[in-house]
Amino acid sequence: VDPYASFRHPRSNKEPIRLGFAQVGSESRWRLTNTKSIKDAARDAGIELTFIDGQQKQENQIAAIRSFIKQKVDIIAFSPIVESGWEEVLQEAKAAGIPVILSDREVDIKDDSLWATFIGSDFLEEGRRAARWLLSYIEHHPTPDGQVNIVELQGTVGSAPAIDRKRGFELTLEPHPEFRIIRSEIANFYFDQGRDVMKKILETEKRRIDVLFAHNDDMALGAIQTLESAGLRPGKDMVIVSVDAVKEAFQAMIAGKLNCTVECTPLLGPQLMKVIQDYFDGKELPTRIITSEEVFPAEVARTVLPKRRY
Ligand code: GYE
């Protein structure tokens, strides 16, 4: 039995599908590219998109979803800023017979009849990949005393990517007690906050910092700016690994300032539109659609950069 059968209300074939999308905001290069990907793909697919920018506030996203329900859109998609607190509004969408697709980030909800499918990355695996790369890098570039002191810059508190990247990174390092996260601070995925939080860390941290793990490239790039102003050589005096693989990260790797970026693609628009069309064509949707991604160490940056699409 199709658990979403109750959602499938007949639509006349001539009318375009009406999609309401509630975005997180515009915190990072990743997010800007993701927004563009969604808008472009909707246009290309002939899907009528109402796009609302949540400006980093869950309450704005909830209000956006309520407005989509009021407008009686055919389908809602959104990228939940945080994992929890969505039950009520998703119940309302369900009661209105409007299906919901999770784009990029997942929710923490017991009742999984409240959303139809998830499209995005495996953030836990991204954290593991960052740690696995680090283990092999340190094996070849050991620290003077064998201790590896790590500073972590976290993304938005309560968001799926911040929670899972942190957890994945920690899980992989667990069997290696010489790798220690000595500081873990929040910089909300922003370049500016990465820069400013790193400055505070440098001012207050007396222990040697060997590694920076940033939950996204923007925060790493901000931190790089701070390290340079402090007369340090990012990528050399401090090993830096981050997530997303935006073009600017490749440029930083080519310049020798960043050591590795773990890919997380923001180009979810075409897949999202395809899933929406499949849905209204009556096809069964998989519960999770995970995008396939790579790890890019600095050695490959020059070769790979020309092929990068974001
Ligand atoms: O890594 C970060 C963005 O949810 C995967 O959000 C996304 C994350 C991405 O702000 O740059």
Automatic annotation (TrEMBL):
Subcellular location: Cell envelope
Domain Periplasmic binding protein: 26-284
Family named by the database record: Belongs to the bacterial solute-binding protein 2 family.
Protein name (database record): Periplasmic binding protein/LacI transcriptional regulator
Annotated organism of origin: Gracilinema caldarium (strain ATCC 51460 / DSM 7334 / H1) (Treponema caldarium)
Residues of the full protein shown: 323 to 632 of 632
